[in-house]
Amino acid sequence: MELPKRRGAAEWLVIACGVWQIGLGLYFIFVRPALLPEDPRYMGVEPQVLQATVPRLANWLNMVFTVLGGFMTGAGVLTGFFAWRVMPLRLRGTTLALASAGAMTVALMSAVNFALHSDFRWLLVVPPIAWAIGLLSYIRQTRP
């Protein structure tokens, strides 16, 4: 089965979301500190109190974020591959897979960051918007 030589806006937007997920995953693995300044603020506790009462919290969180970052990176690789190779084929079920994946990755992350009043919440609203535009573009492209 031959793929189209040109991809549409839908594929490129979802590819961009996949690249973003890869970058975010690598950030979580290699750069993200165990606690951001907003974390103790949300919990209503001073960082020194956390360190004194839960001395291994930072080590544990670093391991948790490494695993989470690995899953983000893996999801980004699969998202990019899906957009590059599967979306152009217009296979049955692609719209549902695309909608579900977007809801459970970029949209859920954005929603939780809004619930937490994260310092990054407005930046994290961009990927779900891009994903939604890509999904709507894909739906429009697949209509006869």
Provide the descriptors you would attach to this structure in a database record.
144 residues, mainly alpha
Explain this structure:
The protein is mainly alpha-helical. It has one domain. It has helices spanning 9-30, 38-43, 47-53, 57-86, 94-115, 126-142. Helix 1 (9-30) packs antiparallel against helix 4. The longest helix has 30 residues, at 57-86. The protein is elongated, with a radius of gyration of 18 Å. It starts with 8 loop residues before the first helix and ends with a helix.
- Overall domain count: 1
- Total number of β-strand segments? 0
- Which residues form runs of ≥5 with pLDDT under 50? none
Q: What's the rounded overall pLDDT mean?
A: 94
Give me the strand/helix succession.
HHHHHH
Cα separation of the termini: 20 Å
> Helical region count?
6
